[in-house]
Amino acid sequence: MKPLESSLDVHGDEFAGNVEFMKNYVEKIRAVENNIRLSEERYRERATRRGKLLPRERLAHLLDPGAPFLELCSIAGYRMDGDKDGSTAGGNIIVGVGYVSNRRVLVMVWNYAVKGGTISSVTTRKNLRLHEIAFALRLPIISLSESGGGNLAGGGDPDPWGAHGFIDGGRVYCQQAELSAAGIPQITVAHGNATAGGAYQVALSDYVVLVREQTQLFLAGPPLLKAATGEEADHETLGGAEMHATISHTGEYLAENDADGIRIAREIIDQLPPSAERSLVRDRDPVPPLYPADELRGIVSEDKRIPYDMREVIARIVDGSVFMEFEPDIDSHTLCGHATIDGWRCGIITNNGPITPNGATKASQFLQLCDQSNTPMVFLHNTTGFLVGVEAEQGGQVKHGSKMIQAVANFRPTKVSIIVGNSYGAGNYAMCSKSLKPAFVFSWPTARQAVMGGAQAAKVLTIVQEDRAARNGTTLTEEEYAALEKSSERLIGGMEFTSESMFCSSRMMDDGIIDPADTRAVISFCLTSCLETPHRGTVSNSFGVARL
Fold it and tell me: Which of 307, 377, 308 lies closest to 336 in space, CA to CA?
């Protein structure tokens, strides 16, 4: 097969402007992530005084040196729940996929250095997202726990600990029990405070490591105990590490300090079945693309009205830049085809415009063929949605669009999505956004997710007002048009803001924003993580592992 030929002008002003935008945007994200780290760093003196490692130091002790770590939802909660500049974003937990004792695992580090590691709605949502991945990929979860319990201050949520927050918290515990029964191990090091809900998170784990003179594990701490019952007890007697290790038997291992607790966690992982990755054999020998990865930063413009050919993106992420296009003469707006990424076979579905009835039909057939051959699917979003109009409707747009969504939803092999540009309306669903349950979904800085573009929404509003006036036998006055124009400006501005990449990522509409140059590496990491799943080696039981 012939490789794709690029026509991208990498020396032009447009390319340079696109690169500058991408780099600046990635720097904005890194600045938010750095603000979180600075918040952690301000806790260093107290942590050192108490003999504790900072959260990211704990993470570094846990992970295999030099092995990749894919952090997820790093800016979740950005400018939400009282966060002003990102310094308290992240939901007070660090989550991701990494390697421990040569095994791929999910990691959750409670960030006690920010707001005491208290639990907010964002914390719960990140926890539940981690569980989704664990269920789908059968990955063990290691939790380095230290939490002050529920954040009663609430931040910006008008009802932070009303029924919905309380019920979502209960889902975390339910799913911990289900994970255990499904044969997915959970190892928790209780580094410090674990009160009320935080205590259940620890105790529902399959393995619990306690840290001498640091663990404080109880449903009610000494002040609440005294207020509720009048009984007085110190922290160690009520819920210290030695008490739980020798009397209540809530933990299996007693560590001397933070580093020792993490060492024990690594040794527990080492007793699990060997790395699933060693059972995998790549479909082909990996071959780099013909074009440099950093050119991916120059393809897509900040101005979403400027078109581009998604073949230019494909040429820079697939092996040898070889793409076997499926039905190339049927509907140029929807691209489907076979490729290999880092040695792994995959299908690719992407867009160069709206999804037409023919495009939806082509994509649905391609999905069924890849399902038949157990070929993973990579979705690269770039669509304004399903095409509308008399011709499209008479061509069965609703029917064919529904069938495409049905095919995506029921597709059995691995699904990975990258939101490159526009991802509007039901096209967002059909291209496997988070609502259609891909294993992973990441965004580029140029990603946009919304029910429609702001300009289209404003035009709809104007037409509705004009039609209403016509039904009443009148027309809109100049003053009414002027008012509509102001409303349209507000609507466009609001929808542009709320569809923007960082806004969507902070609300966990994806698993994070990536530098376009990292796209091939991220897709390869995700595909490998998913393809390992049948080889994990652990087995399910009826009720999970009970601590008796």
Answer: 377
